[in-house]
Structures are given as C-alpha cells and as structure tokens.
Amino acid sequence: xxxxxxDANRKEVxxxxxxxxxxxxxxxxxRTSAGVLPLAQALDRLRSPFALEAFSPLTGDPLxxxxxxxxxxxxxxxxxEARATLAQLACPSVALGADRAxxxxxxxxxxFDLVIGSAAELAPIVETVRRVPLAxxxxxxxxxxSEGLDVHEGLIAESLVYSTLQGGPEFAAWCATRNARPxxxxxxxxxxxAQRDGDCLRLTLNxxxxxxxxxxxxxxxxxxxxxxxxCDPSIAEVLLTGAGPAFCSGGxxxxxxxxxDPATAHAVRSTRNAARWLAACxxxxxxxVHGACVGAGVELAAFARRLAAAPDATFQLPxxxxxxxxxxxxxxxxxxxxxxxxxAALALSGRSLDAATAHTWGLVDExxxxxx
Length: 372
Prior knowledge:
Layout: H1 5-17, H2 24-31, E1 37-38, H3 39-46, H4 51-54, E2 64-67, H5 76-86, E3 93-96, E4 114-116, H6 122-131, H7 133-146, H8 151-166, H9 169-176, E5 192-197, E6 200-205, H10 216-231, E7 237-242, H11 262-271, H12 274-280, E8 285-289, E9 292-294, H13 296-301, E10 306-309, E11 314-316, H14 330-349, E12 353-354, H15 355-361, E13 366-367
Parallel strand pairs: 1-2, 2-3, 3-4, 6-7, 7-8, 8-10, 9-11, 10-13
Antiparallel strand pairs: 5-6, 11-12
Helix pairs in contact: 6-7, 7-8, 7-14, 8-11, 10-12
C-alpha cells in the first residue's frame, strides 16, 4: 500500500529533524520560537494525528504557546480532543490570556503546563527551552505524571527523571563549563546542629561559609536528626533553620557530577533521601527560612507543615539551567503548596520569588521579621 503524501512528509521531517548527539542542541535551539498561536489555530494543529511530533524537541517545535483569549469560536469537541493531547504533548505548553478565556476555551486552562499573565513573562521561558529543551520536556512530563501520586511514588519518579538527565547532553554541557574543584569538609564542625529543648528538636543547617550549600555531609546529618524525630513520638515539634546569611543556597555545586553513574545516583536517592524523612514527620515540622532558599533550600522546606519566611527570603529553582530538574523533592513538595503550573513556571523561568509573592502564592505560610 502506498503511503499518503502527509505520511511521507512526516517520515522525511523525522529523518531530517532527529538530531545527532553532536549537533542536537544547535538544531533544537534554532527551531525554538516565541510564536503565540491563536486558540483556533492551536486546536487545529492539536487535532492532527501527528501533533506529538509537531510539538517535540526532536521533530518539531519544543514549545507550544496559545492565546486563550482568541475570540474565534471553538467547538466543545475540539477542546475535548485538545485536553487529551495536551496531557501527552512532548513539550511544555503555555497558556496566555487565561483570565479572559470563556466558553469551551476555559475548559483548557488546567491542562496547560504553565499559565502566564503577559507576553513579557514568556521571554525567560523561551530562553530556557531554547537552551535545555530536553530538561524542559522532562520537567513538565514529570509534573503531569506526579499529579495524584503519593510522596513515595512522586520521589521515585523524580529521581528516575533526574537520573536520566544526569546522563544527558545538557547536563554534560553544563558540567563542561565548570572547573574541577577539590572537595572540602565543612570548616565549622557539624554540618547540621541538633539541639533538644523539651519536646522541640531544633535542626540547624550549619555551613554558613558556603551559605548552607546542601552537601552529602549535610544530607546525612539532616537525615540522622530527622530519624530521631520519626522514631521518638515525645518530640512534638521539629524546627528547621539555617545558620548564617542564607537558609540554604541549594545543592553543593562542587559535588555535582561526582557520582560514578546515574543508576547508582538513583539508588542513593532511593536509599538516603532527606525529603522522605521530612515527609514522614512533616506534621510536626516547622521551617523558618531567611535569605536565599535555592533548589534544595526551598524544596525541603516546602515539606514542612508550617513555613515561615523572613522578609529578605527569596526562592528559586535553578536546576533547569543545569540541564536537570529539581532533585531534592521539589516536584513533590512544591505542587502540594502552589500547584503544578506555578511549580513549572518557577522552574522554567528561573525567576527569584520574593517573600511577599511566595506568601501570596501559598509557598510560605507567614512572613515573620527576625526569622533566623
């Protein structure tokens, strides 16, 4: 049987567009655009049997941006089909004008990966997708998949995706830009200080000279303290704080890429994961954060039942810039506080969220001056 012209064209596009390891990042970057599709046109493209190839970092455009305020009439059937396709799309999807969507179009809002208020917010997202399209795809697929999963299943899914990206070209490119640095133990004693005061256990991240960068040493010390809390019901409260100018500046970059292979790294996260222990006693955990709360600094704190922030606190998920996704539990903890779409927006934009906005979003429960 002879193939149709459309099928032949699709095969030709696939053959030409799937990049080699050497040239893939350049090919993908050249294809990324900030074009905004009117809703009617987007629905028409999403109805195509080749939609999953038309929107892909390998065979099409690695970003879909749709104007939901488009006044052109759309059918209920087309919207229903688009909802199903958006859930499977092999790239991030962004909705503009969601606040002005009406009729059937309003039924699409919750299926997009991000909802942004203006075209100005689009630029950093486009730039991220242009630089790391594979990580951007992995992030939104992970967040879609993790909706409805329990903490254990969500952390396993996060670790598997993180491990996959550790073996990918985007993380390798980021590692290649960094000079090797010697590993140094903390110069200030214990990486986490544990102090019992009555029925309260205070755990203080204690690498102030490195802005409490979350190292292997700190992870193990934090887990040790959390184990005590989990196993001792007489501890009514766990107070999580940070010493020095910042609560936690994220993962210790000097340790990134030092494990032998991604499979072993996944086994380590499956065995020793601070997020799992935090979740196990989360109803008794109160976090008080200040200064920079980056990567692990916000991902772990977000598990707490109560999260208080100093006015100078800022929150950021920088992992996409390294070709990775949040790997300290953030794809589990943050969506439970701010939802899947805002989590994706925070990660894909790379923006730093101030304390007031974090409070408005529900990422923090209160802003408390003097929090340290």
